[in-house]
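Hey, does this match?
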Amino acid sequence: MAKNTICLWYDKDAEEAARFYAEVFPNSSVGSVFRAPGDYPDGKQGDVLTVDFTVCGIPCVGLNGGPHFKQSEAFSFMISTEDQEETDRYWNAIVNNGGKESECGWCKDKWGVSWQITPRVLMEAMAAGGAEAKRAFDAMMKMQKIDVAKIEAARRG
């Protein structure tokens, strides 16, 4: 196990979520699946308890802990994309699999985990600072999924 691993709480679908992430994102995989050695408050012996998985190289554990705790925007995966095609691919995979669109490049998957699908050009605009950053920021504030062409146009003024 890695020294630092992100642990995500799921009601009961950690394995399904992990397999979805592994199919969608590069450098992602599902590792060990651990089953409960005995009954517990929200499950039975033999149920999937935890799943080791990796998302874009980041080690994670999915814990099937029951309905007590919900995901929130306080935690999100921020996925950097190179172009509109890659942005669309990840955004659409999440949203079209029971997810939900949000604002400014954010969306949620069907398990409630938040994702920021963030084109590199947007981050470069923010790093440039000044009027260029302000124009790109103002354009982004009107978007759900980030439109790379509109961000590039805003950068140019």
User: Anything to note?
Assistant: DSSP finds five helices and eight strands in the chain.
